Records
---
Amino acid sequence: AQSVTQLDSHVSVSEGTPVLLRCNYSSSYSPSLFWYVQHPNKGLQLLLKYTSAATLVKGINGFEAEFKKSETSFHLTKPSAHMSDAAEYFCVVRAGGTSYGKLTFGQGTILTVHP
Amino acid sequence: DTAVSQTPKYLVTQMGNDKSIKCEQNLGHDTMYWYKQDSKKFLKIMFSYNNKELIINETVPNRFSPKSPDKAHLNLHINSLELGDSAVYFCASRKQTGGTDTQYFGPGTRLTVL
């Protein structure tokens, strides 16, 4: 079985300050981990993914995430928030084995960016 | 040149009606998915097809019936719509054989049942 917990339902930052969105996972197999972003009334866009290569993963729009197996975490960070980053972010896990690519989503974290 | 498309984008209907949502992908992928996003924004997988064969079938009422006429299409038919079916439904696709883990999502279909 696999699960994802996003530790904050809402995060609020000022423009130009760092962003940290926290995610913990559990998986019976070596997982693949993803962060997706959903802007209001829009679809889901892939930000970045970890698939057992480098543990520090760089994504689009300056985001990055670090896979820490010992902590079962995959936190998303960005050094400097931009107004356009305001959206909902989903941490997602896909277990290995024969899960046929089944994704399990976290509950989502709404990021608000203040001017 | 949309990768994963869904129609319609919005669907408003009465309780008890039957409706369909269509999904098409032009990425050459062999696996397609339907997800439901509820009012709390929680996303949960419903179904998945690989090469037109059903491979994931989560605990979903049998009023929901997916149909895959070919690898590029996965439609979702819903019978006897209920208020609780109101949600945003997302289609996604992936290349399972020789591909990556990445699933590409469509723009979503917002279903409102009155």
---
Amino acid sequence: RKEVEQDPGPFNVPEGATVAFNCTYSNSASQSFFWYRQDCRKEPKLLMSVYSSGNEDGRFTAQLNRASQYISLLIRDSKLSDSATYLCVVNRGSSSASKIIFGSGTRLSIRP
Amino acid sequence: NAGVTQTPKFQVLKTGQSMTLQCAQDMNHNSMYWYRQDPGMGLRLIYYSASEGTTDKGEVPNGYNVSRLNKREFSLRLESAAPSQTSVYFCASKLGASNQPQHFGDGTRLSIL
């Protein structure tokens, strides 16, 4: 079992819809969490950090559930430009890179 | 506003050739990383440098070497390129604190013939 797991998708939703992804992690020592987006053949870009109390940035809401060991990303009023792969990143709490774990990503496609 | 800069952006090599991928960051970050990403796959860590003067192996280090030249620069070297090393290579950096995110360069697309 992978330490960080994501549904690979693809999620194909109409413009304006609300879509949500989950990401599960297996190591309870994980301390910090992030969502990145990656466009085709481009570098990953930080979308948002995920805080314990949950946080919102415009149309995007991130939640953390430590008890069930998952994080979620909700996108409201989806736009065509939201089409991308969304990567879940978990940091097991050290500056050592070997404890930064990337999920394989969830593909999202927004249709007109 | 450069952030993380990688050179070159594209490279084609023949099997057995060597080359060095360059990465530099201007954000005064302590930690730097090299990843590879194959088509349809996730990122895999090759090597990292938690701080200036240190380097460590990641998940897939075989066939690569690295040098943390100074705080700004972290290079990746392929001594004898193989077709299996055809990939997109990303460099990333971050502050040392665990709750800080990584910032990525825009990648080097490397083909080995």
